[in-house]
Write a structure and sequence with these properties.
This is Branched-chain amino acid transport system ATP-binding protein. Strands 6-7-8-3-9-10 form a 6-stranded mixed beta sheet, with helices on both faces. It is α/β, with parallel strands linked by helices. Strand 4 and strand 5 form a beta hairpin. It contains 10 helices and 10 strands. 38% of the residues lie in helices and 22% in strands. The protein has 2 domains: 176 residues, Rossmann fold (3-Layer(aba) Sandwich); 62 residues, no CATH class.
Length: 260
């Protein structure tokens, strides 16, 4: 689905992404790991149109999408979440979901005058869709809660729910487990797995929790110093000397620490 070809992103004289090439296969849950400063989030930002690449290409389903802005990629089904959730804190959980789809009838001044019936019908359908999403994610009991009152893990579930309000093809999840307790993390993992298997979502996940990555992701791609260092199953990655050196700098004798 996604091919990244010799991608570079420089900030001044610093190469945050330095010639990275990788493939994210349709229908996969691909993990992206690496030490802090490896270039993972910058790579996500370039793919998702937040940053323009210095050079290189990003291809989605055979189409060159290099440098397209996030709203254009949104309409193509490419979505990206962030390490810190971006909820509308004073709106309810349901309202946060209902506002996701673009080009709603209520956004037109003319429709507010002459198309009120259409607006009511659309809002009724959006409400039903939002409630179905909240039930899928097992947070329907929070539908009328202000989003700002949610816990960190609940906000991550809400962000995942936003991707379900549109026809997402591929979702880039940036440190979905950051600040999330173990119980909610497993709920998030279950939701990702179900979306992948039942609805055909493709995922690419940045995460430092190797237990989470090992249970959820195949394949796993490793970045270090802006480059792709290795790719394979989670088990093979954890046995890879180059990967262990990138994380620890101490070689295979400490390989058991990579998941710590």
């Amino acid at each position: 689905m996604i091919q990244v070809e010799n991608l570079h992103k420089k900030f001044g004289g610093f190469s945050a992404v330095d010639g990275a090439s990788l493939t994210i296969e349709t229908g996969s849950i691909t993990g992206l790991i690496g030490p802090n400063g490896a270039g993972k989030s910058t790579l996500f930002n370039v793919i998702a149109g937040v940053h323009q690449p210095t050079s290189g290409r990003v291809i989605m389903d055979g189409e060159d999408i290099t440098g397209l802005p996030p709203h254009a990629l949104f309409h193509k089904g490419l979505l990206r979440t962030f390490q810190l959730a971006h909820e509308f804190s004073t709106m309810t959980v349901r309202e946060n979901l209902m506002m996701v789809p673009a080009s709603q009838a209520g956004e037109s001044i003319i429709n507010t005058w002459f198309g009120r019936g259409r607006i009511r019908d659309e809002e009724r359908a959006l409400r039903a869709k939002a409630d179905e999403v909240l039930e899928f994610l097992t947070i329907d009991h929070l539908s009328d809660e202000k989003a700002g009152n949610l816990s960190g893990g609940q906000k991550k579930l809400l962000e995942l729910g936003r991707t379900m309000m549109v026809d997402a093809k591929i979702v880039f999840l940036d440190e979905v487990g950051a600040g999330v307790n173990r119980t909610l993390l497993m709920t998030i993992a279950d939701a990702i797995t179900r979306l992948n298997k039942e609805r055909g979502y493709t995922f690419c996940v940045i995460e430092h929790d190797m237990d989470f990555i090992g249970k959820l992701c195949d394949p796993v791609i490793v970045m270090a110093e802006g480059k792709v260092l290795a790719q394979g199953s989670a088990d093979s990655i954890m046995q890879n000397e180059a990967v262990i050196e990138a994380y620890l700098g101490r070689g295979l004798k400490n390989k058991e620490m990579i998941g710590a």
